[in-house]
Amino acid sequence: MDKIVIRGGKPLHGAIPIGGAKNSALKLMAASLLSPETLTLTNLPHLVDITTMAHLLAELGVRIAMDGSAANGGHAGRAFNLTADTITSTTAPYDLVRKMRASVLVLGPLLARFGEARVSLPGGCAIGTRPVDLHLKALAQMGAEIDLREGYIEAKAPNGLKGAHVIFPVVTVGGTENLLMAATLAEGETIITNAAREPEVSDLAACLTAMGAQIEGAGTDTLRIVGRRELHGAEHAVIVDRIELGTYAIAAAITGGSLELLGGRLDLIQAVVDALHGAGVDFDETPGGIRVSRTRNGLRGIDVMTEPYPGFPTDMQAQLMALMSVAEGASMITESIFENRFMHVPELCRMGANINVHGSSAIVRGVDHLSSAPVMATDLRASVSLVLAGLVARGETMVNRVYHLDRGYERLEDKLAACGADIERVRT
Ligand code: EPZ
Predict the structure, then answer these.
(1) I want to staple 224 with a disulfide (CB 3.0 to 4.6 A). Which of 193, 216, 259, 407 is the partner?
(2) Residues 238-279: pLDDT tens digits?
(3) Which residues are catalytically annotated?
(4) Once rounded to an integer, what is the mean pLDDT over residues 369-380?
(5) Is residue 323 pLDDT above 90, yes or no?
(6) In whole numbers, what is the pLDDT of the chain averaged over residues?
(7) pLDDT higher than 70, residue 328
(8) Closest atom of ligand 1 relative to the 198 alpha carbon
(9) Contact residues of ligand 1, CB 6 A cut-off
(10) Ligand 1 geometric centre to CA of 372 (Å)
(11) Ligand 1 centroid distance, CA of 336 (Å)
(12) Is the model's pLDDT at 378 over the cut of 80?
């Protein structure tokens, strides 16, 4: 299994291109199931999770033509043409769903267009139990008959889905997206109250609208969808990855460097910008994106709580904790979205960080420096937080289980090395 080896202590300077958002691309790919015509997606990141979703869709009969565009020095995202004109199966098998929970996002589109779907129940995962009960309750409200049998969700809507007023009791990104897709082909009007406002949901709504769907309220907590008999083909460019953006912003901050993040948009990471500004990090817009620098001397501890968008993203919590580990003073980081998202804490502590967890909050007391250690993590963002820590740790940090990073960060080590990091992938 590959490892990443980092010799810390080099401030990063240069420019990093930010790719298309994984968490948008996966749902956009699933949306191709809603139409027999071709959906062309551009700016897709080159990531393991995208390949997993492509395998799943191919298993269902979607034809996928890829354009592995090498334009822009290989930095341009890939383009896929996805055509769901001859679906051969409506079953998402266990072997693919267990690799990636986002596979459950084929449920809404399959059910809406074909009146049936059989999707393996995603199990718990490293960051918590992560049920899909809210997806299922919402689809049931639209008239779906849902059974759980032998580890599978078996859903049927022989007479089609019907519009409904769905009120989500908690904000769920995937639940909102599954329902939004299903509602585009339902009979009548669907209203989603307490909808997720994440930019990836708005990106999906924009793509569905280009496919002929009628959607109002994207980006707000109330979505109103009037179902259509069918959707047509479209072309859509995946929105920039705000979590990749925020992660490299922290790379600049933690190393005391300055990075231009190409394609970056401040509006997508405003809560991160506000928090980091309080910690002593500067952000400026540039013609090509945004520049992040730590010009002032020290970093200061800040208190942050993760929240649904537009709050501070849970997907940036681990990276912020790495930064706070070397800030002056104490900070309190509270995780309000997932119940078990502090797996990076013991690993950061092995590198010399001083962190105590009390329930859903972690108290981080900044230390003068981190030291290298062999480390590993069990999820994507926890893994990248260890890479960030390695960038400032004294000595050689070895990050194991790199496959987690490959699920969400395209050419991470190349992008960092191009800006002066001493980092390499060791293939074993
Ligand atoms: C999406 O997960 C992202 N994944 C996650 O990113 C992200 O952390 C999360 O949204 C929150 O922003 C993808 O987009 C593929 P939720 P999702 O439904 O949709 C509970 C990463 O690192 N809940 O908004 O699965 C749930 O357990 C990943 O890229 C229910 O109880 O998240 C959680 O506590 C990790 N029942 C909360 O709601 C349900 O039916 C929010 O989950 C659904 C959710």
Answers:
(1) 216
(2) 999 999 999 999 999 999 999 999 999 999 999 999 999 999
(3) 125
(4) 92
(5) yes
(6) 95
(7) yes
(8) 12
(9) 23, 26, 102, 128, 130-135, 170, 172-175, 314-315, 337-338, 380-381, 408
(10) 32
(11) 12
(12) yes
- Helices 173-184 and 133-141 pack at an angle, to 10 degrees, of 30
> How buried is residue 210: exposed, middle or buried, by Cβ count under 10 Å (0-12/13-18/19+)?
middle
Full-model pTM: 0.97
Of ligand 1's listed atoms, the one at least distance from the Cα of 337 is 34
Q: Which of 28, 50, 130 to mutate to test the pocket of ligand 1 (most atoms within 8 A of CB)?
A: 130
Residue nearest to atom 42 of ligand 1 (CA): 172
By CB atoms closer than 10 A (0-12, 13-18, 19+), residue 357 is middle
Average pLDDT over residues 217-240: 98
Is the preceding peptide bond at 313 cis, omega within 30 degrees of 0?
no
Question: Ligand 1, from 315, 360, 405, 407: best to mutate by most atoms within 8 Å of Cβ?
Answer: 315
- Could you give the CA distance from residue 138 to residue 268 in angstroms, rounded to a whole number? 28
DSSP 8-state assignment for residue 33: G
Answer whether 181's CB lies under 8 Å from 207's CB.
Answer: no
40 pairs with which residues across the strands? Answer: 81, 235
